[in-house]
Structure prediction request, 761 residues.
Amino acid sequence: MATLLLPPRHYLNDGYGIKSWLLTRDHKRIGLLYLAAITLFFFVGGAMAVLIRLELATPVGDLVSDETYNKLFTMHGVMMVFFFLIPSIPATLGNFLIPIMIGAKDLAFPKLNLASWYIYICGGLFTLYALVAGGVDTGWTFYTPFSTVSSTTNVIPTALGIFVTGFSSILTGFNFIVTIHRMRAPGLTWFRMPLFLWSMYATSLIMVLGTPVLAVTILLVALERLFHFGFFDPAVGGDPVLFQHLFWFYSHPAVYIMILPAMGCISELVAAFCRKQIFGYSFVAFASVGIAVLGFLVWGHHMFVAGESVFASMIFSALSFLVAIPSAVKVFNWTATMYKGSISWQTPMLYAVGFIGLFTIGGLTGLFLASVGLDIHVTDTYFIIAHFHYIMVGGALMGYLGGLHYWWPKISGRMYPEFLAKLSAGIIFLGFNLTFFPQFILGYLGMPRRYHAYPPEFQVLNVLSSAGASILGVGYLIPMLYLMWSLRYGRIAGSNPWGAVGLEWTTTSPPPTENFAVTPIVTWDAYEYGTQVKDHVA
Amino acid sequence: MLPEATHDQHHPALAHQFDSLAAQSEATTLGMWVFLATEVLFFGGLFACYAVYRMWYPEAFAAASRSIDITLGATNTVVLITSSLTMALAVHAAQTGKRTLLMTFLVITMLLGVVFLGIKSVEYYQKFTEHHIPGPNFSFEDGKFNRHAQLFFSLYFAMTWLHAAHMIIGLGIMLTMLWWSWRGIITPEYYSPIEISGLYWHFVDIVWIFLFPLLYLIGRHAH
Prediction:
């Protein structure tokens, strides 16, 4: 085999020094800026999780006080949701890949793209300030009147941080929508697009239409807290439940901001490592849009016990069940793609099958929670915690790691060490299940969330969960270390190490700043494994 | 390659990621529409609050509505609609390459915007002297509506202030457009900045077209 070489000119050696990064308009470099920033926030949020699990190793509150514990889970939620999960795949892989996958030179608005990163950092600094200044104890949900009247902690800096970061999310979604509409290469019709792009498009719709509602809600909380305006204050006839409606109108669709991009990654991975066209391409594509649309109609299932009318609860329950349909379409179609596929078990594929399994558990327990009667039984227990961690960590984070490994050779030009990567994928899968599966049982038995102490009979399951968390922590550290190592010492990947189809694999690794020397003309469908290789090699 | 495209590639306003100025202005126009969709949802949260509380407390809302100055509100509505007209005329002047006319219309649009904000400040000052600012010093003439009128005024200030903030941003955009027109950047080939600034300006006007009846008119004559 001939020795592969890095291309002489690519986006990473097109300018050196701090200015060439901080003032870049290249979507690929901005993707890497985001990658660095969200990794930082992931480990800050992870540190909170470590302390939470340490505290819960014993039934009595012995490591931290109850106030500190409240601040820990609040900051864990805020960091992980707003500063890691929401930007994770869109702002890193999405930024890097969307223009390349559609054969464009850049996103439609490169300056706004860079601005979105600075806005994100600015919001992050507010939130880090809140953390350093003593933290905030409202929970990531900021329910009123606690957040507007009672809490004496740093609500305003945290809220400001989330408000500001929201605009980076809006700008990202806005940029993606315009780019996908207007900048596709000649011949790349909507139904020839890789499914990653469909899911990014659906995600962007939620970012653009949901985030502003959260922004205005936070603004109202700030006005109420700072100037004693009344919006949600019962003293002047306001309704705290209205806050919950507005909050979940964004924050439930936000779950789909996290999971849809991961689903997009999984579609790419399953096709590439089974060497098959995705089964039922158009169903998977429409399922993404369907999830985005239905996702806006189900927020009331967070409020079954909050004084919502029984009629409203029943409607929201039925609508929540509907989300299961497009979600199941995806799971079935991935599985059908694998059927009789020529599967190779490289690291990204391990993450993909991990995702399918864990997402299925997370999704099915979501149906438990959509049923009003059962939900009332497990409301505010560890059952909820386990459910959404199966979606957000077992789903979104597995998809993110799978995608990161799959496109790492494209991003860096070098391969990651395969054995270590497979090992850590296994560690993460084991650690994850050991951490969160016991929490389903704990919750079903009645252990409430958000307490730093618990009855002694719950200790065994909690110790299992804490042990799992330490394994999971190790599993996350290993990829960070070997990915950084591979930047310098990894084997040179070549432009298409997986033998995959898709425009991103037709350019060099790493790609040149302008992505393609000549704008490609697309005459084939997505995932033409088999046929395409024949046609284009011959 | 088409001759137009070759010509375009020398245009100083053409960004490297686009093949032609036409593709670029289509993208920026779509971008502005997407942004406006975001804005609709941004104001939408407030409109939802308004709808809920108005349904619950119609009498208090009617009483509070009667206490704000309809003459000033109506004047402002006329001022803003006129500014939308001059903005549309500015876009037309830009399309046809009449630079002096374009700059004149932009200046008139900005002046009308300033007049609007001036009248709004007078209204805010009136509310301040009448103790209608929500919070500890709030008091309402009709004591039985004291609590719920505070909800009305919380919404009144949040909505009109957010609208005014958009006007101020709009004035900043207009100032930039005036500067670009003066420097000759805006031409009949490249006028999409004026066009999308116009879209923004019209949007802010339309928000007011909703705010005016909701805050000043509905229920005013109920008793």
Q: What stands out?
A: Confidence is low (pLDDT under 50) at residues 532-538 of chain A.
